[in-house]
Amino acid sequence: MRSVKSGLTYSFEFFPPKDTEGEERLWAAMSQLESIAPDFISVTYGAGGSTRDRTIRITSEITARIHVPTVAHLTCVGSTRTELIEILGKYRSAGIKSILALRGDPTGGPRAPWTPTEGGLSHADELVTLAAEFGGFTIGVAAFPDGHPSSNGDIDKDVQVLLEKEKRGATFATTQFFFDITKWKTLVDKLAAKGSTLPIIPGILPVTNVKQLNRMAELSGVPIPAHISESFSKIEDNADDVRKLGVEIATKLCQDLLEAGAPGLHFYTMNTSSATREIYSQIKDER
Fold it and tell me: Is 248 among the residues known to form the active site?
């Protein structure tokens, strides 16, 4: 994976499908996005680590089949320290060179109470240390422009957490999706004021389904600005209009972020490709 410090990066995130039909859609979406030549593709875990084995398999197959660098998610949820070391070994054997070290979401979602796995790790910074000690990986972490669900809106606490992860070996971060660019700017500026050089790659969600957006926002605590929520509520029964508005909002956010000096853009594809391809095409045409 090209270092995010060496130039603008474009990347895509997918989640492991639940069945054969979903897997076919996943590979079709990846194939359609491959022509963009993304700098990396990442694959998530489900809540509670529920798709861990599928994530390992899919991530390994991406590396082998389409030759795009992959960032494999690794979470503390549901794994002992020994099991985490075993997973790191599987990733390395599959030729994966980058991981995203996360605490992970409990089974009940990101706002559910956190209970560490016995014999496991409690925080993402511990996982960064473990991966750094294992060696051979570029290590990314998560950042939250609207605040981590457990930080109760304390952005300074989030900054300290990111600084600690950087100190332990993280070299880039991708953010939770957001809609207010000022939140990303505040996070980046506060980190820079503390001497951080950690690139904070903004995460972009092209909205194509209003119910899905509301569900994701509810689970993650990401606020949807009133003007955006109202605009979608007027057209939520028209899938084409929702998609068009989602592309329009995401494109404008991307343009503003690049103008503000973002080191790259990380798209939450929701395992589809058309909206992301359209946004990318508009951005590239203007640059």
Answer: no
